[in-house]
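Hey Z.,

So I finally got round to the C2G thing we talked about over coffee. Here's the setup:
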Amino acid sequence: MKKVITYGTFDLLHWGHINLLKRAKDLGDYLIVAVSTDEFNSLKNKKAYHSYEHRKMILEAIRYVDEVIPEEDWEQKVQDVIEHEIDIFVMGDDWKGKFDYLKQHCNVVYLPRTVDISTTKIKKDLVVIAR
Ligand code: C2G
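And the result:
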């Protein structure tokens, strides 16, 4: 069984996230998503609209996702890859090169980001619509 892992906040889930999760799952048989905790998000200077528990619940409902674990710090990836016996690490290519150190433990794949959608864009557009 080929196991895939990816990391992220996945706030205000949108079709760009789904595109990423679908392509990640298509690379193997089992997809683990490490979703950022609220505490880790503050380290990323991100404030998610949905809490960790709700973002976890939403991700667990996605057909491409087999397991959701917490992402609590920058340093856990190597341990995650080893403990979960991961074959492929996947991230959107806005992270290209940033996680190449994992290449000694698994395949590292950066997938093209989906253009014209992002959580930031949704928030900005809503401000205009809500007026
Ligand atoms: N993504 C994408 N296309 C978009 C938006 C996001 O492919 N239009 C991808 C990102 O590249 C990332 C994943 O969806 O691989 C989740 O995006 P975010 O929730 O923004 O994740 P981020 O805050 O970048 O956290 O340790 C890694 C970090 O936790 C990644």
